[in-house]
Amino acid sequence: MHDLNPTDVNKETDVTVDTRDDAKTTATSTTKAETTTKADAKAASKARRGKLFADLAPLIGLAVLAIAFVLVGTSSGTNMGYAVETLINQSVIIIIIATGAIFIFAMGSFDISLGASTLVAAMVAGLVHNATGSLWLMLGAAILTAVATSLISATLAAVFNLPVFVTTVAMLSVLGAVAAALVQTTGGAQIRIDRAFSREYDTLAVKLIVAAVFLALCVFLFNYTRLGRVEKLVGGNPMTAKLTGVSMKLTAIAAFGIAGLGVGLGAFLTVLRTPTLTVTSASDIGMNILVAMVFGGMVISGGPRSRIYAAIIGGISMALLNQTMSIMLQGMAGGAGIAQMVRAVLFLAVVWLAASGFRTKVLPR
């Protein structure tokens, strides 16, 4: 029987200790990996819940406002047929212009000259109708004027390499001066078209046909063509868009062209709805469009979370809110101010909810 060498014993002990250490290290690594995986899964689940909430919140809000409108209207004895017609008249122009503007907002850009552009296009359309008496020439003049003003903003931004927002601020002042000059051409303080003519075409059928055709075009372009995908890519990550060969200038020009088409159609309907135009006409359209898109769930920063239906939901929601507040505050002193404060509070609440729905470390997919 041979005695064991102490050196051999020490070696065997070292091997055993090393094996145990390796096992402990492996177990620790496995535990950490499992913990990280669970944390990632929890964060991803939270992100999905936030996205679902952000997607459903505008629809829930629309349903709540619709129920409130019906309850308040019926309890106060309001003529609901007339109230619904007023609701459509209030919302259709905002929906059309906002739907076209979504192509700009999807890029992460911002246009505050939409109201002024609508006014100028409506004035030119009114002057053309007074000179020719033609409905189609009036429509063509409104569209051409609006598209031209929109393309000027995009072209200036492209040529001088300026942010689009800056050029739209400049265009706001320019268009205001143009509107004042157009009014002066009539020798008075307003541009007026024949009221009998406007009443003939200021019908729900005309409004709905114009809106349906334009909305169908925008939905197709935004959801099913390369243009829509590029718009959202530019808004989500401009650098990636550049590296993939996207022309930022052409993309901006295309977005502003579509927005100009929406402004032209909105201006055409504005002339029919309000045959007497002054420099203050359509002054609140720009802000109403922004509020409507936010109410509809549009992410102002643009990107892949942009939705074309935001303008439709938001426009109807805003009209429902306005009508409900008008019925509730009818005859009340300071009712208009109270309605403005309510809209402001709801606007801030919607923005906060939309932002909180995506406060997560996981990138949106």
TrEMBL record:
<feature type="region of interest" description="Disordered">
    <location>
        <begin position="1"/>
        <end position="35"/>
    </location>
</feature>
<feature type="compositionally biased region" description="Low complexity">
    <location>
        <begin position="25"/>
        <end position="34"/>
    </location>
</feature>
<feature type="transmembrane region" description="Helical">
    <location>
        <begin position="204"/>
        <end position="224"/>
    </location>
</feature>
<feature type="transmembrane region" description="Helical">
    <location>
        <begin position="92"/>
        <end position="123"/>
    </location>
</feature>
<feature type="transmembrane region" description="Helical">
    <location>
        <begin position="252"/>
        <end position="273"/>
    </location>
</feature>
<keyword id="KW-1133">Transmembrane helix</keyword>
<feature type="transmembrane region" description="Helical">
    <location>
        <begin position="308"/>
        <end position="329"/>
    </location>
</feature>
<feature type="compositionally biased region" description="Basic and acidic residues">
    <location>
        <begin position="1"/>
        <end position="24"/>
    </location>
</feature>
<feature type="transmembrane region" description="Helical">
    <location>
        <begin position="135"/>
        <end position="158"/>
    </location>
</feature>
<dbReference type="InterPro" id="IPR001851">
    <property type="entry name" value="ABC_transp_permease"/>
</dbReference>
<keyword id="KW-1003">Cell membrane</keyword>
<keyword id="KW-0472">Membrane</keyword>
<dbReference type="Pfam" id="PF02653">
    <property type="entry name" value="BPD_transp_2"/>
</dbReference>
<feature type="transmembrane region" description="Helical">
    <location>
        <begin position="285"/>
        <end position="302"/>
    </location>
</feature>
<feature type="transmembrane region" description="Helical">
    <location>
        <begin position="341"/>
        <end position="358"/>
    </location>
</feature>
<feature type="transmembrane region" description="Helical">
    <location>
        <begin position="52"/>
        <end position="72"/>
    </location>
</feature>
<feature type="transmembrane region" description="Helical">
    <location>
        <begin position="164"/>
        <end position="183"/>
    </location>
</feature>
<keyword id="KW-0812">Transmembrane</keyword>
<protein>
    <submittedName>
        <fullName>Inner-membrane translocator</fullName>
    </submittedName>
</protein>
